[in-house]
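retry 2 of 3: previous attempt timed out while embedding zinc ion. Reduced batch size to 1 and resubmitted. Inputs unchanged:
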Amino acid sequence: MSIYLLGMNPRISCAVCGETLRKPFITHVFGQSYCATHLDTLPQCYSCQRPICRPLTNGGVQYDDGRWMCQHCRAQAIDNETQARALLQVVRLGLAKIGLDIHHPEIQPKLSTRQHLAQLAAQYNMQQYGAGHLVFDGLTQSVTHPDGRRGVGYIYVLNGLHREHTAMLMAHEIGHAWLFLHHFPALPLQVEEGICELWAAQWLQQQNTPLAKLRLGQLAHNPHPIYGEGYRQALRHLRGRTLPGFLEVVRRRGGFERVK
Ligand SMILES: [Zn+2]
Ligand SMILES: [Zn+2]
Ligand SMILES: [Zn+2]
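retry 2 succeeded.
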């Protein structure tokens, strides 16, 4: 038996405006649905991507660099080096579970502003990653020792993000550090970034939370030719191997193997 009158649809109300949901609408991984048009007028949370407003996110704050954070993500934000170091330890343990040894004490995090990341990117000639704008929120400083070996400096990650967002960026950057510390040959940019997105994805898969699900979807659908395409290629080449097994193949070939 239906509780609705004949000919009437159940009315689902928008979690932002409270009116009947208008199409197109978005159902967020956290379960709330809202009219897509609200994203045109409301600022979007940098970590969970929801439109910031009182009913949906209990409001939010804007950082000096322009980014918005909703209050829910703010409550879980990583703001200082002590928190960042503790979180890096958690990520290390998670990656160790999938057989990746990352007990290299030289891998240390530093939280950065957007401006500082942009300055570092310019310094390292990383404009090739995006057409004049920053498309990444983390950066691993590589150092070359006098004997030619590559080592790592700091892992820089954007400050003030939700801890799961920060952790995912750390997993990606630890991937770069790991490649340096294991003396991998220089890899094509798309291969290296694709592999590091795989590190991030494997860490997210262990979390099994709505935010991790959201981030996994974004990795899979990222239109970026280096990050998105690199990740999809890495996934295709993984073909049931463990990540450590796959990395060994990449090291031997200096890239992805050719698919017949
Ligand atoms: Zn609405
Ligand atoms: Zn948020
Ligand atoms: Zn990267």
